[in-house]
Amino acid sequence: MAGIRDRKIAVLATDGVEQVELTEPVKALKAASAQVVVIAPQGGQIQGMNGPEKGDKLTVDQPLANVSPEQFDGLVLPGGVANPDHLRTNPQAVAFVRHFVQANKPIAAICHGPWTLIEADGVRGRRMTSWPSLRTDLKNAGANWEDKTVVTDGKLITSRKPDDLPDFCREMLKLFGESESQQAA
Q1: DSSP states of 121-168 as a string?
Q2: CATH fold of 2-184, please?
Q3: pLDDT tens-place string over residues 108-150
Q4: Which residues are known to be catalytic?
Q5: Cα dist from 111 to 67, 69, 138, 181, 183, whole Å
Q6: Three state DSSP letters for 57-68
Q7: What does the domain layout of the chain look like in residue ranges?
Q8: How far is residue 94's CA from residue 96's CA, in Å, rounded to a whole number?
């Protein structure tokens, strides 16, 4: 996928991230030759989850304080219940996400990941999907919620759950690749 080659993609997560919703998009992005940076409010490692069970400790490439959103071409927001719940209460994380929203940079969010987008005022008027329990939150924030494996609305890709990862990753790669060719035009 030539369009995504050497693009710099931020993956913002913290403790409680659904492990596969971080690892599978990262693997797909790296396979497409994107430069991927896993960012968390703290450095070191974050606790992955496999549903309600603890998963692996996942390596953080950069603490949030050491990066600027201007350095990145796209953003991935994995889910897990605790992960976005913590991020949406962190002003620095919300400001990081808000930059992508305001700059109209591509964003891919899965499962509970859109919770942070609500806080960054990034869902109003957008077609989206998510884990079903976020439907009311997204609607109350002005989104048009759809029950589909993947929903694309401009430069925003959303999916519901780990089972949707094949569709999510395919559309994410397409979106991040298209964004480069549009910028080059």
Answers
A1: T--TT-EE---GGGHHHHHHTT-EE--SSEEEETTEEEE-SGGGHHHH
A2: Rossmann fold (3.40.50)
A3: 999 999 999 999 999 999 999 999 999 999 999 999 999 999 9
A4: 111
A5: 25, 22, 12, 28, 29
A6: EEECCEEHHHCC
A7: 2-184
A8: 5
User: How far apart are alpha carbons 41 and 44 in whole angstroms?
Assistant: 10
If we measure between CA atoms, which residue out of 173, 14, 33 comes closest to residue 106? 173
pLDDT-flagged residues of the chain (< 50): 1-2, 180-185
Q: Give rounded-to-5 percent helix, strand, coil for the chain.
A: 40, 25, 30
Pairing mode, strands 144-145 and 35-40: unpaired
Neighbour count for residue 71 (Cβ, 10 Å): 10
Is 0.90 surpassed by the pTM of this model? Answer: yes
* Distance separating alpha carbons of residues 145 and 54, to the nearest angstrom: 30
Residue showing tokens 């996942």: 58
**Which of 110, 142, 115 has the alpha carbon at shortest distance from 126?**
142
Question: Are 39 and 49 contacting, i.e. CB atoms less than 8 angstroms apart?
Answer: no
